[in-house]
Amino acid sequence: QVQLVESGGGLVQAGGSLRLSCAASGSTFSTIAIGWYRQAPGKQRELVAVISNAGSTNYVDSVKGRFTISRDNAQNTVYLQMNSLKPEDTAVYYCNGDLSLSAVLHGTGSWGQGTQVTVSS
């Protein structure tokens, strides 16, 4: 089972950028898919971006053109580069990982502890 640790969250003004990291251990990193989810107060957790073990990516419409997910298999890390941030991007961001892409898409893989992103207007 994969263990995940997120980092890189913080407070940023609208229009600014942050890069989140999801470091993995406990599994052969190159074989797992990783998804970034977020949960705002009072809202359900939503899938923001996902990257397969082969490097294919997909994004929710609200972040297309602003967020980029990437992976560095040598560093066992997946990144989420977030540009042009908006107050509505404020949430706790979590990564979810599994050998099965379907498990990641359904949020049934392993979870990290989350990292807070706050975007001020």
Short description:
This protein is mainly beta. The protein has one helix at 101-105; strands at 3-7, 10-13, 18-25, 33-39, 46-51, 57-59, 67-72, 77-82, 91-98, 110-111, 115-120. It is globular, with a radius of gyration of 13 Å.
Gyration radius over CA: 13 Å
Uncertain parts: none
What is the percent of helical residues?
A: under 10%
The fraction of residues assigned to DSSP E strands is over 45%
User: Mean of the pLDDT scores?
Assistant: 96
Features:
121 residues, mainly beta, 1 helix, globular
Describe the overall structure:
The chain is mainly β and 121 residues long. 4% of the residues lie in helices and 50% in strands. Strands 2, 4, 5, 6, 9, 10 and 11 form a seven-stranded mixed sheet that branches. A four-stranded antiparallel sheet has the order 1-3-8-7, with no helix packed on it. The longest helix has 5 residues. It is globular, with a radius of gyration of 13 Å. The termini are far apart.
Produce the secondary structure layout:
Blueprint: E1 3-7, E2 10-13, E3 18-25, E4 33-39, E5 46-51, E6 57-59, E7 67-72, E8 77-82, E9 91-98, H1 101-105, E10 110-111, E11 115-120
Parallel strand pairs: 2-11
Antiparallel strand pairs: 1-3, 3-8, 4-5, 4-9, 5-6, 7-8, 9-10, 9-11
